[in-house]
Amino acid sequence: MPEGDTVWRTARQLNDALAGAELVSADLRVPRLATVDLAGREVLETLPRGKHLLTRLSGGLTLHTHLGMEGSWRCRPVGSRWDGGPAHQVRAVLVGTEQQAIGYRLPVLELLRTREEESAVGHLGPDLLGADWDPGEAWRRLTAEPSRPLGEALLDQRNLAGVGNVYRSELCFLVRLLPWAPVSAVPDPDRLLRLAHRLLVVNRDRLRRATTGERRAAGRALWVYGHRSAPCLRCGAPIRRAEVGPPDRLRPVYWCPRCQHGGR
């Protein structure tokens, strides 16, 4: 699932391509929206909210999308070739006067009244890349269940919005706790949330994500994520990997058995 920094970049790309443009056509390829006509409406802006995208249109409408595990938006000049996947995976096409945006494999695609956006995103916690970022509120939500595994709590968008699988593993490593350690084991809450905020901020403008400070050497940009059986960059112990979560939504998690502690 894309992290908050990827969604932030996607919103910027949609803004650059369509903000201020009048829609020549819009093809929303889900049954309940198949007959909706958005032609003539101006695209006002696209805002990221955690892992959600809100494309606001004139007339008080908002197109709400979510990338899920495999979704993406591609922006291309009108008339150019679509290159994000086969045509049957296209869920939305927004065509402006010069640019077009094609949404692939979008699991969430709905049209809302702009005044009702909170019905879609009001449940989210403070957004790590949003103007509303509030570490105090994020920590209050995280500690509402002090015995909950830290990795699980970080991934819950109701606590803080923007952390995905990559940052879950990396943040647990950086605070030296296993993903299964309880939230109550976090020794320095301020540091955890400062790290989360800083990592997303410094990576939002990068195509290649880095948490170690090393962006050039292959295999050294991230501390543990994706490094199964490779030596830990800090201590040399083999990195471990497991699939966690409900059977229908298993997610990979990585950790160092020597550097991290606090859980089974």
- Could you tell me the strand content as a percent range? 15-25%
Q: Secondary-structure element sequence?
A: HEEEEEEEEHHHHHEE
Number of domains: 2
Instruction: Report the C-alpha radius of gyration, rounded.
Output: 20 Å
Enzyme class: lyase
Domain FPG-type: 223-261
Keywords: DNA damage, DNA repair, DNA-binding, Glycosidase, Hydrolase, Lyase, Metal-binding, Multifunctional enzyme, Zinc, Zinc-finger
EC number: 4.2.99.18
Please give a handful of descriptors for the protein shown.
single chain; alpha+beta; multifunctional enzyme; DNA-(apurinic or apyrimidinic site) lyase; zinc; N-terminal domain of MutM-like DNA repair proteins; Helicase, Ruva Protein, domain 3; four-stranded antiparallel sheet; elongated; 264 residues; damaged DNA binding; 22% strand; 22% helix; 2 domains; oxidized pyrimidine nucleobase lesion DNA N-glycosylase activity
Description:
The chain has 264 residues and is an alpha+beta fold. The protein folds into 2 domains: 4-121, MutM-like, N-terminal (N-terminal domain of MutM-like DNA repair proteins, Alpha-Beta Barrel); 135-255, Helicase, Ruva Protein, domain 3. It has 6 helices and 10 strands; from the N terminus they run αββββββββαααααββ. Strands 1-6-7-5 form a 4-stranded antiparallel β-sheet, with helices on one face. It has a 4-stranded antiparallel β-sheet with strand order 2-3-4-8, covered by helices on one side. It has a two-stranded antiparallel ribbon with strand order 9-10. β2 and β3 form a beta hairpin. The model has no long low-confidence stretch (mean pLDDT 94).
